[in-house]
Amino acid sequence: MKYRYSKFAGEELDELDLEELLSRLSDLLLSSGFEDPYGMPAGDQSMQSLHDAILEAILNGGLLSDETLEKLLGKDWQDSQDAESRLDELVQRIIERLEKQGYVTTSPDLEAERERRERGAGSGGGEAEYKFEITDKSLDFLGYRALRDLLGSLGRSSIGRHDTREMATGIEASGASKPYEFGDTLNLDASGTILNAVARTRAQKGPVPTGDAEVGTGPLYTGALSIDYEDLMVVQGEYQSSCATVLMLDCSHSMILYGEDRFTPAKRVALALANLIRLQYPGDALKVVLFHDSAEEIALGQLARAKVGPYYTNTREGLRLARRILERQQKDMRQIVMITDGKPSALTRPDGRIYRNAFGLDPFIVSETFAEVAACRKGGILINTFMLARDPDLVSFVRKVAEICHGKAYFTTPRTLGRYVLMDYMDKKTRTIH
Questions:
Q1: Domains located in the chain, CATH noted
Q2: Which of 207, 281, 343, 350 has the fewest Cβ atoms nearer than 10 Å?
């Protein structure tokens, strides 16, 4: 059998950095519904929106150099009559590569097709529209990139774990060894223990015999060695606590009002926090709860599809669900990180109906919310609130929540939200836990 070898020339799109492209598309991939002021479902997951975003990144974002574009489209592509079709073909190839690399998946938009068919055959035919979904691989990358950017803004090159001030015999060796005491974790210092045993044996019996000869004139000993309780040495380490966190995200209508998108930065923070926990604190747990007219727990993989809507703010129901989740977690620390910009304006009645009042701070809603905050404190759950508004009434409400549960209240902006959340999470390492 003969083999013929040729020079590997690579693919034409090898110069395209897909990760840089994903970073440029992050606003689209994590869309919160900000484009629709009424909070109704928008077509921002359509293939056309992905096509337009990639085209914008190519032409105006500097994603591909002029030389690369000429190589892919031809030197005269700008003056040619089919320039638009060439660009469309290039964008389609990029989408196919994203799909091949596992960053996005495409599927028919069944809801749009169903609506088209319900309008009747006379409304026009045509092929079914397609929509795209981002994959877990994309979510991991976006979370990693957000975490890297946020930590870079903090000026930190590395992250510790939840270390406390108390020295204990933990797994992470960071202190001098000490004699073992009852109750210590048996994180054995092997060399120190053996040296103690050798020194004790030599002091009690002289040189240790080996067969028919005696050895003991030098520093080395061979033969059987008996280790006693008093010889045991353990390595000290800083006590590392485990933490269970529920991230509560407000997805009420106010999160996209007043010309500012607050929900997309909150989703980025959730992804960054998930990567921080997965990479640096693998023993910790993170759950995500969305609260609006009611509350629901969502998987982290569904976070990119979460959008705001024409909802009110049922803070009590979100806290209640978060408390139930945390009560099942056997961790040293249990905390709720609540990101919101609005006052509580809804309440779930015992019969399941939703009571709503968006005018001012309703005393009934506020009192019931404070009662749930007290229940969290009774269960040993800390609540840290990150408020994206500065209304005086909201400030007093948030401060009262912090006072009841002995938590913290941060008044921040969407631009600085991530730094505050990550700093607060990492600062738990200085908290003494017993």
A1: 12-117+126-134 (no CATH), 141-162+241-430 (3.40.50.410), 166-238 (no CATH)
A2: 350
